[in-house]
Amino acid sequence: MCGIVGYTGSQKAAPILLEGLKKLEYRGYDSAGIAVLNNKVIEVNKVTGRIANLCERTADGKNCPGTVGIGHTRWATHGAPTDTNAHPHMSNDGKFAVVHNGIIENYIALREELIQKGYRFESQTDTEVVVHLIEMYYNGDLKKAVIKTSARLQGSYALGVVCTDEPEKVYVAREASPLILGVGVGENYFASDVTALVSYTRNAIYMDDGEFAEITPDSITVFNPAGQPVEKKISRITWDVGSAEKGGYEHFMLKEIIEQPRAVKATIAPRIKDGEIILDETELTADYLTSINKIVITACGSAYYAGCAGKYAIEKLCRIPVQVELASELRYSDPLIDEHTLLIVLSQSGETADTIAAMKECKNRGATTLAVVNVVGSTIANTADFTLYTWAGPEIAVATTKGYSTQVSVLYLFALYAAKKMNRIDDKLYNDLLECLKTLPKKIQEAIDMNSAISTLAKKYHGVDSMFFIGRNTDYAVALEGALKMKEISYVHAESYAAGELKHGTIALVEEHQPVIALCCNEAIMEKTMSNIVEVKARGAEVLAVTFKDNHKIVSLADDVIFVPKIEMIFSAAVEIIPLQLLAYYVAKENGCDIDKPKNLAKSVTVE
Ligand code: M6R
Question: Between the chain's N and C termini, which has fewer beta carbons within 10 Å?
């Protein structure tokens, strides 16, 4: 999705903007541009394709004098990815340049109105209405023009605006699209994502919906929609620069797979003290938890699959119904949600548009909302009643890995915590499971170590047209995520099935040499899954089984076996997923795919 950056200070702006845009590349984009103000003239450079093209055009920014500027990476929504549609967009009088993330939903009506008033449009974008509205409302006071323009916009936006009449200032505005201000000394920044700021400053102001800000080299003033100044807290960014860089790995995805033991440890260890789980960021008291009659988990993509894995642990331990709902479906389903529902919202980015909308819908119906989010200060974190952060650090690869495993880990913590509060678990089982949970980072590390040769297996399983992933119960939840990982980065058609469902239709597709990845870590129903392996083998399938260490029963059935360390069944998803992430990674590599930036995908899906 699109990314924006901005700078005002005493240094040359263009190199800073380009560096910031490079940090946002992981979000996915198809064109990029910068606008720099110099001697009361705005110079715009924009190109289709990679930021490298923009660097080449501007000699890494050295050819663009000026100390104030804005930049953008565009992921096309309205209009093809062309130089003209790339941002920044200019006003007809050349006085203003604008960058925009989000979607202006009423742009067609605004465009017609502006054309009738004589404004000339260059692009097919929704964004261009913004710059012409500012031009129309400007009468020497940019702040007033921004207020009037914002009031006309419907939809979502994070805007950056420069004006030749106010050559040291940058204006920004936010509505339902992330925007963070970076506080420096004698210079200030803004960006849609902290990764673009961490190299320059660790002091950040998170803007809220409806707010706009005036930024100069020495001041940042944030205003409410009526134009009155608001007090904002300066937060400390704890992510280090190194974790937002590749650190010697060929791809961010591999680095992030390897980081999982640390990420899961950082997420669970501080919340376990003296044999108890402490979730003091929440007020999920025994009284509250026993007053609810169901838990609904909502999310998109892998976060939804993390919810599917967590459901088993919560239902098993708390004996309360758990529904897992796709956010894009839940929001339009007239959901049966009221004040007796606890809504758990999972999101790595905290900015997924469908998840935000589903959460707001459920909040309006009375649900208490608990967010499990990785990005501090994100919209979901700020909107929820309570937030449990997953301390995974920045996740750059589009395909989530540590985001998923830390979400699952928080659900495990929650399951055990709630079971205790609700008095649904005896002390012995609680203590045993807690001890087991503490070993999760170690088990994940073992799963990584045990699968160092998976690249060899990928040579056998790459180049196929399709794969099936099967499993039952907790294994099925992992199969869902394993198939998504495979398809999104290797472009192999991959489908997951509850193993018992195969015979109800899908088995018709199993032919000679069809790869089937069979997940068999759940001992309680292993015999059943083994029968399914026999069924697909009988039709010529090539079976790659994933099972726990020393389970030799499967070896004689499957063509290949991947082992993972044994762990309590309800916690096994976070371990079992490791070889599937690695398999997807190495198959994608064999297939020659752009692993960190898969085609058509964006890291954070901020549009519906
Ligand atoms: O940031 P979120 O966790 O809300 O993102 C949800 C999905 O867009 C995300 O998990 C997506 O499915 C990933 N590309 C999967 O790897």
Answer: C
Nearest CA to ligand 1 atom 16: 399
Domain with 485, as residue range(s), is 448-590
Give residue 302 CA to ligand 1 midpoint distance, Å.
5
In a domain, 315, yes or no: yes
- Identify whether residues 400 and 529 lie together within a single domain: no
Residues 60-86: b if buried by 16+ CB within 10 A, e if exposed: ebeebebbbbbbbbbbbeebeebeebb
**What is the Å distance from ligand 1's center to 363 Cα?**
22
Shared domain check, 232 and 279:
no
pLDDT of residue 243: 64
Based on the residue annotation, tell me whether 443 is a catalytic residue of this protein: no
- Quick one: 311 and 415 in the same domain? yes
Cα-based distances in Å from 149 to 104, 377, 438, 507: 12, 26, 53, 57
Residues 229 and 83 reside in one and the same domain: yes
- Whole-number Å distance, alpha carbon 601 to ligand 1 midpoint, is 10
User: Is there a single domain that holds both residue 35 and residue 54?
Assistant: yes
Please list every protein residue whose CB sits less than 6 Å from any atom of ligand 1.
300-303, 347-349, 352, 355, 398-400, 403, 484, 488, 601, 604-605
Residue 601 lies in a domain: no
Q: Do 194 and 341 lie in a common domain?
A: no
Residue numbers of the chain with a pLDDT score lower than 70: 1, 27-28, 240-245, 247-248
What CATH number does the domain containing 560 carry? 3.40.50.10490
What's the CA gap between 236 and 112, in Å, rounded?
A: 44
Nearest CA to ligand 1 atom 10: 302
For position 242, what pLDDT does the model report?
A: 65
pTM over 0.85: no
116 assigned to some structural domain: yes
How many Å apart are CA 347 and CA 533, to the nearest integer?
Answer: 34
Q: Is the peptide bond before 88 cis (omega within 30 degrees of 0)?
A: yes
Question: Any catalytic annotation for residue 2?
Answer: yes
Which tens digits make up the pLDDT trace of 412-466? Answer: 999 999 999 999 999 999 999 999 999 999 999 999 998 888 999 999 888 888 9
The domain boundary, picked from 438, 456, 490, lies at: 438
Say how far apart CA 272 and CA 278 lie, in whole Å: 6
- CATH number of residue 148's parent domain: 3.60.20.10
403 and 457 housed in the same domain: no
- The pLDDT, as a whole number, for residue 136 is 97
Structural domain total, the chain: 3
φ, ψ for residue 335, nearest 5 deg: -65, 150
Nearest residue CA, atom 9 of ligand 1?
Answer: 301
Distance in angstroms (rounded) separating the CA atoms of residues 350 and 192: 12
Predicted pLDDT at 247: 65
- Protein residue closest via CA to atom 12 of ligand 1: 301
* End residue of a domain, out of 417, 438, 459: 438
Residue 165's contacts (CB-CB under 8 Å, 6 or more residues apart) are: 40, 95, 140, 142
Residue 563 has a pLDDT of 94
Q: Which among 352, 356, 481 is the best mutation to test ligand 1's pocket, defined by most ligand atoms within 8 Å of the CB? A: 352
605 assigned to some structural domain: no
How many A from CA of 378 to the centre of ligand 1? 15
Centre of ligand 1 from the C-alpha of residue 321, in Å = 25
Pull the structure tokens for residue 584.
């997807």
Q: Which of 260, 348, 407 to mutate to test the pocket of ligand 1 (most atoms within 8 A of CB)?
A: 348
